Amino acid sequence: MTQELQGMRVGILATDGVERVELDQPRGALQGAGAKTEIVSLHPGEIQARQFDLNAAGTFPVDRLVADASVDDYHALLLPGGTMNPDQLRMNRDAVQFVKDFMASGKPVASICHGPWTLAEADAVRGRRLTSWPSIRTDLRNAGAEVVADQEVVVDGQLVTSRGPADLPAFCAATVEQFARAHHPMPG
């Protein structure tokens, strides 16, 4: 186990309907590399996770409300998917502003599956190259993104994106790598 993310704080913006595996696996990879993670959400208590959007898949405790969170509290941001999760986040002014502030800060952001919906709502995909779950690609194009369909991971500057659960191994590796690069900038 490496500790390349030691001392890094990563916010995970999620709410009810989050796809469990898309939160669990990246969080495990980040924590395995030494990062501290916090679930930032719309309401206190616990959020309900799903499997394939349809099946209940347990809960996650909420660490902080997005209304009380600031981009200054974190070194990086993770946006997992699930259909209902980003659909609710993009309807919440605080969540959208949090994502907009993160993208404006230049800090790294990783998003998978339907997660980029919130990025689109924050007007943060215009001119960016990214990928996502197939059903939201038109929304992303309409928001000004260059959408790539045939790559499991796309890295565009501070942004790491993947298509869905099948891409999790590559997404987790790229996320840790990009977050480490930002946490420990390369010389020259």
From TrEMBL:
Q: Family assignment?
A: Belongs to the peptidase C56 family.
What name goes with this protein? Type 1 glutamine amidotransferase domain-containing protein
| SUPFAM superfamilies found in the cross-reference section | Class I glutamine amidotransferase-like
Q: Where is the DJ-1/PfpI domain?
A: 8-178
InterPro entries assigned? C56_PfpI-like, Class_I_gatase-like, DJ-1/PfpI
| Keywords of the record | Glutamine amidotransferase
PROSITE patterns, per this entry? PEPTIDASE_C56_PFPI
Decide whether keyword Chaperone is in the record. Answer: no
